[in-house]
């Protein structure tokens, strides 16, 4: 089997997300890479399922709470950017402050799909999400 660099990266994100899901199920707080992979994988899969950019952005910020991650992790992740494949092509999804509170939904999207209305959707490759040099955490499909 030959995989492109993008496909290899996607499998790496999935593998890290799977480790994160198992640790979260056991109540083990996630570290920075695990939290990023957990949220990124969820976004990529929802794009593949055909959810809108706005739905993904809204739901992604409800996946993990501060109690799900190690101390300091929420402050380390100011933004996550992923490029899921949607039915009509690849789009950039930016999630600002993805770990916001203690009340969260589930990774399967049961509670995480309600639109909070506080994130504007982006549908293209030039998402102006960087704020004066703020570091972004990226994972591409």
TrEMBL record:
Metabolic or biological pathway: Nitrogen metabolism; urea degradation; CO(2) and NH(3) from urea (urease route): step 1/1
Record field: compositional bias (Acidic residues): 108-141
Compartments it resides in: Cytoplasm
UniProtKB keywords: Cytoplasm, Hydrolase
Pfam families per record: Urease_gamma (PF00547)
CDD domains: Urease_gamma
Positions of region (Disordered): 97-141
Enzyme class: hydrolase
GO biological process: urea catabolic process
Cytoplasm recorded as keyword: yes
InterPro entries documented for this protein: Urease_gamma, Urease_gamma/gamma-beta_su, Urease_gamma_sf, Urease_subunit
Catalytic activity: urea + 2 H2O + H(+) = hydrogencarbonate + 2 NH4(+)
Chief location category: cytoplasm
Enzyme Commission number, as recorded: 3.5.1.5
SUPFAM superfamilies the record matches: Urease, gamma-subunit
GO cellular component: cytoplasm
One example GO MF annotation: urease activity
Oligomer status and interactors: Heterotrimer of UreA (gamma), UreB (beta) and UreC (alpha) subunits. Three heterotrimers associate to form the active enzyme.
Family: Belongs to the urease gamma subunit family.
NCBIfam families: PRK13241.1, urease_gam
Protein name (Swiss-Prot/TrEMBL): Urease subunit gamma
Native source species: Haloarcula salina
């Amino acid at each position: 089997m030959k995989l492109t660099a993008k496909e290899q990266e996607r499998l790496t994100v999935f593998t890290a997300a799977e480790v994160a899901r198992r640790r979260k199920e056991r109540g083990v707080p996630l570290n920075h890479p695990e939290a990023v992979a957990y949220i990124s994988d969820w976004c990529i899969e929802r794009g593949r399922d055909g959810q809108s950019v706005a739905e993904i952005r809204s739901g992604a910020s409800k996946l993990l709470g501060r109690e799900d991650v190690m101390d300091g992790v929420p402050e380390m992740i100011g933004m996550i950017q992923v490029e899921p494949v949607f039915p009509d092509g690849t789009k950039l999804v930016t999630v600002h402050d993805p770990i916001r509170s203690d009340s969260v939904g589930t990774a399967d999207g049961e509670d995480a799909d309600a639109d909070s209305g506080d994130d504007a959707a982006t549908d293209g490759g030039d998402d102006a999400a960087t704020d004066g040099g703020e570091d972004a955490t990226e994972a591409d499909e």
